């Protein structure tokens, strides 16, 4: 995080975790949480890291490494994608966008070093530079019923649909699917400070749980160190949210991903969960059916909603999704299973 940006946040009341990078809240975590779905709120996304890829072969290199078609990423389009191991398990998930000739891969900062090292292993003779660009751009998440109108009053026309991108006054604006209109914003220090000041007139800054909560409600997965290499992309519903291309060429793990699509039937997938606890479980926490000896699934991510209820995404065995489930043990907190807000194809029998 740029020292100037951190000082700016502190001057605006930010209270940081021990890592010095994560804004926990702005003085009143409970009040901030209650506003997350009903008002215009914005959060610093420095807990998310950025990998920059640029150079003559950048697009070709990423096309050969990731699950989605990088040729669809341009000045007007963003996408989700995954980096897999040879067994088809997702090492990391990315939100990818482009500024000028540089591709930016956004992912949890806790997983950045792992993903960057993995990508750099395959550079060889390719004319591509890969680097940690987390301090290159300030990044904000902004959401709310009137979020689009508020941004238009400052920047002009906004992206109309999810995964569309516009650049306004040096700020790259990504529209992201969610239960309320929401946008990711990337730019240099000075224009982002000015934007913050503008948004702060009618909106409120909130802490780190804001953006992951909206991802959960939208059914958009994240991969963290605890779940890296745990799931094939389809288990995370990535094929249902335009995160996999089945028409592009090969990439690590592609045979496994393609075989599941064309020859198999999905046995595990991601569901929306409500958990009877006020302490959100960590990613990879196991879920058990009543009386079951083997785990029925794992937590992908979990947060408290504005009413203080624990909501989550979890990958479950489809055959056990309609059973009584519990968190952590067969007698742990009860888990209610619901649907994500989109259809999930299960495989060749559909």
Write structural notes for this entry:
The structure is a single chain. With 350 residues, this protein is an alpha+beta fold. It folds into 2 domains: 266 residues, Gyrase A, domain 2, CATH 3.30.1360; 78 residues, Aminomethyltransferase beta-barrel domains (Elongation Factor Tu (Ef-tu), domain 3, Beta Barrel), CATH 2.40.30. The chain is built from 8 helices and 19 strands. The protein has a 6-stranded mixed beta sheet, covered by helices on one side. It has a 6-stranded antiparallel β-barrel with strand order 14-17-16-15-18-19. The longest helix has 14 residues. The radius of gyration is 20 Å and the shape is globular. The termini are far apart. The model has no long low-confidence stretch (mean pLDDT 95).
The amount of helix comes to 10-25%
**Span between termini:** 47 Å
Classified in CATH, the superfamily of the largest domain is Probable tRNA modification gtpase trme, domain 1
Number of helices: 8
> What coarse outline follows from CA principal-axis ratios?
globular
What's the main sheet like?
6 strands, mixed
Q: How would you summarize what this structure contains?
A:
The protein is an alpha+beta fold.
């Amino acid at each position: 995080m740029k020292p100037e940006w951190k000082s700016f946040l502190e001057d605006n009341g930010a209270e940081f975790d021990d890592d010095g990078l994560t804004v926990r809240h702005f003085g009143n975590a409970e009040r901030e949480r209650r506003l997350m779905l009903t008002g215009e709120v914005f959060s610093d996304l420095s807990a998310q890291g950025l990998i920059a890829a640029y150079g003559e072969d950048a697009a070709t290199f990423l096309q050969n490494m990731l699950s989605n078609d990088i040729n669809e990423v341009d000045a007007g389009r963003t996408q989700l994608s995954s980096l897999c191991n040879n067994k088809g398990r997702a090492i990391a998930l990315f939100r990818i966008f482009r500024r000028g000739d540089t591709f930016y891969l956004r992912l949890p900062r806790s997983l950045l070093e792992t993903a960057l090292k993995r990508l750099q292993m395959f550079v060889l003779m390719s004319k591509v530079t890969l680097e940690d660009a987390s301090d290159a751009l300030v990044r904000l998440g902004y959401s709310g019923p009137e979020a689009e109108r508020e941004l238009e009053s400052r920047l002009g026309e906004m992206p109309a649909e999810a995964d569309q991108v516009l650049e306004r006054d040096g700020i790259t604006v990504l529209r992201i699917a969610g239960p309320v209109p929401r946008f990711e914003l990337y730019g240099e220090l000075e224009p982002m400070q000015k934007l913050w000041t503008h948004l702060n007139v009618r909106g409120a800054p909130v802490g780190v749980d804001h953006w992951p909560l909206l991802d959960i409600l939208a059914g958009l997965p994240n991969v963290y160190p605890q779940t890296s290499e745990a799931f094939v992309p389809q288990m995370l519903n990535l094929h249902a949210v335009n995160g996999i291309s089945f028409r592009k060429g090969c990439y690590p793990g592609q045979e496994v991903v393609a075989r599941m699509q064309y020859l198999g039937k999905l046995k595990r997938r991601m569901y929306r969960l409500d958990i009877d606890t006020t302490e959100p479980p960590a990613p990879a926490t196991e879920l058990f059916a009543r009386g079951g000896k083997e785990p029925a699934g794992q937590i992908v991510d979990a947060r408290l909603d504005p009413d203080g209820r624990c909501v989550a995404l979890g990958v479950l065995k489809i055959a056990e999704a309609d059973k009584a489930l519990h968190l952590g043990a067969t007698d742990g907190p009860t888990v209610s299973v619901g649907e994500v807000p989109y259809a999930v194809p299960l495989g060749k029998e559909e």
